[in-house]
Design a protein that fits this description.
The chain is of the alpha+beta class. 11% of the residues lie in helices and 21% in strands. The chain has one domain.
C-alpha cells in the first residue's frame, strides 16, 4: 500500500485481524511492522479490527469509504 501511494491520499486506515495461523516472529511483531511503515502518518490507524479473511468474514474492498467514531465503524460501499 505504501509503495502504491495509497497511504498518501487517505484520512484513516483500518486493518483487519489476522487468523491464528498467521505467525509473526517475536522480533518482528505486527505492531512493529505497522510502526515501521506508518510512523509518519498523521491520520488514525486502527488495527486488529474484526473483519477480513477470518470469522466473521466481511469483505471491504480497497477504496471503500467508512465513518469512524469512538463508538463504531460504519462502512459505506458504493458500486461504480
Amino acid at each position: 500500500m505504501k509503495q502504491l501511494g495509497w497511504l498518501d491520499d487517505i484520512s484513516g486506515l483500518i486493518v483487519g485481524r489476522f487468523t491464528e495461523q498467521s505467525q509473526f516472529s517475536e522480533s518482528d511483531t505486527f505492531e512493529e511492522i505497522l510502526s515501521r511503515y506508518l510512523n509518519e502518518v498523521t491520520y488514525p490507524v486502527l488495527y486488529n479490527v474484526d473483519f477480513g479473511h477470518s470469522d466473521p468474514i466481511i469483505t471491504v474492498p480497497n477504496g471503500g469509504f467508512c465513518t469512524i467514531n469512538d463508538k463504531r465503524i460504519v462502512f459505506k460501499m458504493s458500486v461504480a
